[in-house]
Structure formats: C-alpha cells, structure tokens
Amino acid sequence: MTDRLEAQFAFLNEADRLKSVLRATTLCDGSRRENSGEHSWHLALYALVLADQAGPGVNIDRVVRMLILHDLVEIDVGDVPIHSANGAAHGSEATLVAEARAADRIFGLLPPDLGAELRALWAEFEAAETPDAIFAKSLDRVQPVMHNIESGGGTWTEYAVTAEQLEARVGAKIARGAPRLWDYVKARSARFFKVSA
C-alpha cells in the first residue's frame, strides 16, 4: 500500500507543475495569462454546465475526466497556441510525438493499473473519435474563444487572427461535437471580424 501511495502522490505532485505552464489565452478580464491547470479546471466546469449541449450517448463524467487530464503533457511540452506564429506546430508530428512521450512519462509515475487507465483516457481524447472525446475537444476549443470574446479580442488581436483562421482551426472542431455552441460563439465573435456562415 505504501508503494502505491508513493506512486500516486508522485503523480499528483508532478501534476502540480501544470499550474506553472502559461497559455497564450488570457483570463476573461484580460488581466493575465491563464495557466494550464486553470484551463483544465475551467473546462471540467464547462462540461458540467454545458452538458445539455452534448450529443446522444455522451457520458459527461468521462468527459470531465478527459478534460482534467488532457493537458498534463504540457508539463513537458508547454502550450502550443493554435493561432501563434508557431501555430503550425500545433498538431504537428513532432508535437504529437513529444506529447505521447510526455504522456508515457507522466502517467508512468502512477501504479501500472491506474497509469494505463488514465493514459488510455488521454489517448482517447487526443484521437477524438468517440462521442465523449469529440464533445470534450469541442469544449477545449470553445473555452479560449469565449475568453477572447470576453477580453475584447484577446489573442485574436495579438496574433492577427482572421475569420477564416478561426473557422478552419476552431470552428469545425466545435461544430463537430457541439454545433449549437459553435453557432453561439460564432455570432458573439462577429463584432471582432466577420465569420463566414
């Protein structure tokens, strides 16, 4: 039991480092950059509050679990902003390999049974093929959009994001798992740039 607890606390202590990873996205009030720990917590809350936007067969408890875990790899890899000058790295083969390596290391801190379970949940989120993961990915794209809207344009202004970029990089993923949410945020973002229908 002591060895198991040692491993569990080693993982939890390592996970605390996520609070030190700064994201490009600011808080809604624009006062500072959000950290990845805050982002994960906020997304879990998004899942609970916006559960009525999920499609048939989505298990919100699993979605919450995915969202709490999904960015732990940023402890090693950092945040790769989708709209930054380095945005091409977002989803690149090199980033995916680095994230998988980070997932192996971080989830490998846990006892093998728990580590394998949580690593599989992380991989499911990344693949975005199950209803749970598709909805979770949609929320992961919605939250930064709402932060940019609430902060007066936020990183859209900083990175000179166009309507076409928003549609291509974000809109399709939101619409895939939560079409009404995309309709809502698209309408709200129209004051910053014209988003195509």
TrEMBL record:
<dbReference type="InterPro" id="IPR039356">
    <property type="entry name" value="YfbR/HDDC2"/>
</dbReference>
<protein>
    <submittedName>
        <fullName>Hydrolase</fullName>
    </submittedName>
</protein>
<feature type="domain" description="HD">
    <location>
        <begin position="15"/>
        <end position="182"/>
    </location>
</feature>
<dbReference type="GO" id="GO:0002953">
    <property type="term" value="F:5'-deoxynucleotidase activity"/>
</dbReference>
<keyword id="KW-0378">Hydrolase</keyword>
<dbReference type="InterPro" id="IPR006674">
    <property type="entry name" value="HD_domain"/>
</dbReference>
<dbReference type="GO" id="GO:0046872">
    <property type="term" value="F:metal ion binding"/>
</dbReference>
<dbReference type="Pfam" id="PF13023">
    <property type="entry name" value="HD_3"/>
</dbReference>
<dbReference type="GO" id="GO:0005737">
    <property type="term" value="C:cytoplasm"/>
</dbReference>
<keyword id="KW-0479">Metal-binding</keyword>
